[in-house]
């Protein structure tokens, strides 16, 4: 009994009733538009206040207009989905955004028509039944109602009719609630079928998610390369300064100055990347910070800071390479690749001589870093996240990256096409 009462008058039933009444309200413009044509055809000037027959014909004429509008206007589906989630208690997955395919638009049109059509019937009953039920409930109390034109004086002369009138009024109210609950349950059951994501919606959502993950992966590489290089350089600078703190104060001052410069630049890059994450990856090109360093802007500074960390670096740039004329994307990625190559040498080889050579072929930029393998540690056979990040950067531009040990030296070779990603 309690479950039945909850189904008829519970919170969910009331919300679904409101959903149906909203559907009836949305049908009114279509009903009035249909009545413009139905009135002259039936010879009735105002079908809205005319015969019941004219009203039902106007209602039937409105439904095709409802279906057509849902096919034409793309906002019909997001509006319907929002109302269903808020009022119908549907927990299944529903589509997001406008319908993209013809099949999705047809299903949206069917749902919109069902909602407004059923909602109009329930709304009409909601307007008509409660006043009639109140009249029947008040008949035994007010004699004037029994004798009014709204009643049947001959009928209410019988005692049984007067006694049963309140019962009939209560039954009408219960039947109204039952019709509303049944209609609400019907719509809640059909919503996941008609408003579920279509294959095109799922594909678009998957592509959007993949693009978002790609952006976040690029941001993660920026953080790894920038912060990782800075920490490696600062660690070596601080260690060297500690060893000669008493004997070489000039070197200590130079090391502390390099640490200050390195950390300041890295904090700036970290703030830019975190700003992108906070703002939903809306700034910058392709999810990269707008202030990302390039070969043209900071290659010399990178080499200077690395040498200050105690790493001997010999850099050479081929005659065909002009950092100012490189594509911006290639210049940024090349800078990060050089930075990560130097960072790997700092972390894994220590203060060993490193050579960096940047050359240009007809269609690509080639970056080669080499350093002797340390005698105290085994050769590296695949690297960590840094080498994977270099390979990802090269692959996104359509290039290649190889790394490995040979003849007692570690060699990283990256080739970046100058035409951009393919």
Automatic annotation (TrEMBL):
EC number: 2.7.13.3
Enzyme class: transferase
Domain Signal transduction histidine kinase subgroup 3 dimerisation and phosphoacceptor: 216-281
Species lineage: Bacteria, Bacillati, Actinomycetota, Actinomycetes, Kitasatosporales
Name this polypeptide is given: histidine kinase
Matches recorded under Pfam families: HisKA_3
UniProt cross-references to PANTHER family, sorted A to Z: NITRATE/NITRITE SENSOR PROTEIN NARX-RELATED (PTHR24421), NITRATE_NITRITE SENSOR PROTEIN NARQ (PTHR24421:SF10)
InterPro entries per the UniProt record, alphabetical: HATPase_C_sf, Sensor_HK_TwoCompSys, Sig_transdc_His_kin_sub3_dim/P
Record field: transmembrane: 20-42, 54-76, 110-139, 159-187
Annotated GO CC locations: membrane
UniProt catalytic activity: ATP + protein L-histidine = ADP + protein N-phospho-L-histidine
One term of GO molecular function: phosphorelay sensor kinase activity
Record's keyword terms, sorted: ATP-binding, Kinase, Membrane, Nucleotide-binding, Phosphoprotein, Transferase, Transmembrane, Transmembrane helix, Two-component regulatory system
């Amino acid at each position: 009994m309690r479950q039945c009462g909850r189904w008829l008058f519970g919170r969910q039933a009331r919300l679904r009733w409101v959903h149906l009444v909203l559907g009836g309200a949305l049908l009114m413009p279509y009903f009035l538009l249909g009545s413009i044509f139905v009135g002259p055809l039936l010879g009735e000037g105002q079908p809205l206040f005319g015969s019941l027959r004219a009203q039902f014909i106007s209602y039937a004429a409105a439904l095709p207009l409802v279906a057509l509008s849902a096919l034409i206007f793309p906002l019909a589906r997001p509006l319907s989905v929002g109302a269903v989630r808020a009022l119908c208690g549907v927990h299944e997955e529903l589509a997001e955004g406008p319908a993209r395919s013809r099949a999705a638009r047809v299903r949206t049109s069917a749902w919109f028509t069902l909602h407004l059509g059923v909602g109009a019937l329930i709304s009409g009953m909601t307007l008509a039944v409660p006043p009639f039920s109140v009249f029947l409930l008040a008949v035994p109390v007010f004699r004037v109602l029994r004798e009014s034109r709204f009643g049947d004086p001959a009928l209410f002369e019988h005692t049984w009719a007067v006694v049963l009138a309140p019962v009939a009024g209560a039954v009408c109210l219960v039947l109204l609630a039952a019709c509303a609950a049944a209609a609400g349950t019907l719509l809640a059951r059909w919503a996941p079928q008609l408003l579920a994501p279509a294959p095109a919606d799922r594909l678009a959502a998957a592509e959007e998610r993949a693009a978002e993950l790609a952006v976040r992966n690029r941001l993660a590489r920026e953080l790894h390369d920038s912060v990782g290089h800075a920490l490696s350089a600062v660690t070596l600078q601080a260690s060297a300064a500690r060893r000669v703190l008493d004997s070489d104060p000039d070197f200590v001052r130079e090391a502390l100055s390099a640490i200050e410069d390195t950390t300041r630049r890295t904090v700036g890059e970290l703030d830019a990347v975190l700003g992108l994450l906070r703002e939903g990856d809306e700034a910058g090109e392709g999810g990269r910070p707008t202030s990302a360093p390039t070969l043209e802007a900071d290659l010399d500074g990178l080499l200077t800071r690395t040498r200050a960390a105690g790493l001997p670096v010999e850099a050479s740039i081929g005659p065909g390479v002009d950092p100012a004329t490189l594509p911006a994307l290639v210049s940024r990625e090349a800078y990060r690749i050089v930075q990560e190559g130097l960072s790997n040498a700092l972390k894994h080889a220590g203060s060993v001589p490193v050579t960096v050579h940047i050359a240009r072929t007809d269609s690509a930029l080639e970056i080669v870093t080499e350093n002797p393998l340390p005698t105290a540690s085994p050769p590296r056979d695949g690297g960590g996240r840094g080498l994977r990040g270099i390979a990802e950067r090269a692959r996104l531009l359509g290039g290649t990256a190889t790394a490995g040990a040979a003849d007692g030296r570690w060699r990283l070779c990256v080739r970046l096409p100058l035409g951009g990603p393919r």
